[in-house]
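Methods: example folding runs. The two proteins below were folded one after another, and each record is reproduced exactly as written to the output file, sequence line first and structure-token line second.
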Amino acid sequence: LHCDVLKMADFEYSDINPANELEKRIADAFLIFDHHGNKTVDVREIGTILRFLGCVPTEADVNEVISATEFEDSNGTVHLSKFLPYVSQLVAEHKMEPAPPEKLLKAFRVLDQEGKGFVDKEYMTKLITEEGEPFTVEELEEMMAVAVDMATDKIAYELYLNQLLVDF
């Protein structure tokens, strides 16, 4: 699986010359977030850009990209000239890809020890906010809005995974 890089509108590159279609798409996505027209973005936009490209980075991944691409004297900005080759290589190496559906199903089945086909909302909320890399409040709300059956307050995980596949 690879980052699903979206086809974007053409931008003026001037001093940046994307070498292939992948680099062009990455540059196009980056330039959407360049609010000053100087081929730079605030480091706080990097996670959004990566997700916009279809990648699924952890916060550690985002921080790694920032560390590798941020200019030392830039006051928290990343220039396209450093971002483009670095992210192109990550995408080419299939980094930051979403987990395959089979792996997600297996994980849900581990959580559903009784094999009922669902996980309680409260249990899932506790896990994803307290274990591993915790979800943000926004990520939690987005997930629960799609995943939870409001009538039962449970996550029927096979249905939820099917919804994810349709949306993806």
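Second run, written to the same file directly after the first:
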Amino acid sequence: MKYTISTHNGTNIARQHNLRNSKVVSKEKHVDLNGRHETWLDIKPEEAYKTIFNEAVKEYNENQKQKGHSERQIKNYYKKIQEDKKKHSVYEMIIAVGSYENHPDSTTSEQILKEFCASWSERNPNLVMIGCYYHADEAGANHVHIDYIPVADNLSRGMKRQNALVKSLNQMGYGLDSKNIHDTAQIQWEKAQNQELERICNLHGLEIDHPKREKQAHMNINEYRQQKMIEELERKNKQLEEQKSLLINRINGLIDYHNDLNKTINSLEHGATKLAHQIVSKEHIVNRDCLTR
């Protein structure tokens, strides 16, 4: 059997959803509250930013102070990135093996996803993982959410170390020679992640299918989740239609049985009436013979 794989990248992070905060997931009908889920890594973004960027912020602020531009000093780099309309403080990739209806068993899926996550930092040294959440409590294929911060070093403008997605991908070798807008650093990187996931799947004996799909706009995480919910609703609707068809067939079968039963009863009643007439007729003949004697 062949399976599809997906490595969907986006920017709308739902950490409390990923952590399975009861106040959040209790309102999400697609999550089985008794289902299995694990948090393999969880670092608050604010704390991660301090660890990753504090030294660079201190160095930058000291330089600005020496230049007499104390007003340019950065007080909170995490907040600065959050307020930047062109940047995102954290990115997320959702990784899954299989589709809603066709996916490997949970044990195999979990092992593949664990191996993919375990080698993340080695493959992506400039994408610092701060969250890794395994979800086997939603309908369909088990999946993992990886939250990460893109980190670029040795920059000439501003801080030497910054949150910069394209530059961080460039420093890992992606998008350096491409002039095709359909072959950007991010697209190249996502293809590489997909290939790595397929490689791990092959090691576990899974054959991967690559269905041809029409080109579509890149969805964000919320749009991706909405699409998955739509697919789930469509699947349930299909099931209901199938159940409806079965019920209609059963009802029609019962109606036919009822009609046949009525015919049988009518036939028996007719036969009983005819038999009764015959008996009465014979009794009449017997009585008449007795009288004539």
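Comment on the second run: Strands lie at 2-3, 5-10, 31-42, 91-97, 127-138, 143-152, 162-163, 207-208.
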